[in-house]
Specification:
Shape: elongated
Distance between the termini: 21 Å
Radius of gyration: 16 Å
Number of domains: 1
Number of helices: 2
Bound molecules: zinc ion
Order of helices and strands: HH
Low-confidence stretches: none
Helix content: 55-70%
Strand content: under 5%
Mean pLDDT: 93
Length: 79
Amino acid sequence: MNERCAVCNYKFEKEPGYFIGSLYVSYGLAVLEMILLFIPTYIFFSFEVIFAVLISALVLLSFFNFRYARIIWIYIFQY
Ligand SMILES: [Zn+2]
């Protein structure tokens, strides 16, 4: 992750461990995604398929969650 924004020179990590709290946001995003994926797969598929779909989605969406959790965290403490 860059130390500062290339456009507005915003310093992202204001103090050591600033983004530790974004883990809670990431957890919330993952839970939300798993619930949203579980409902349609539960209707049509067996347990093994549901498990495979949820684990695959969890791994693939972790890249998305990592970035968006930090963005949301920055916005929470913007002022
Ligand atoms: Zn910026």
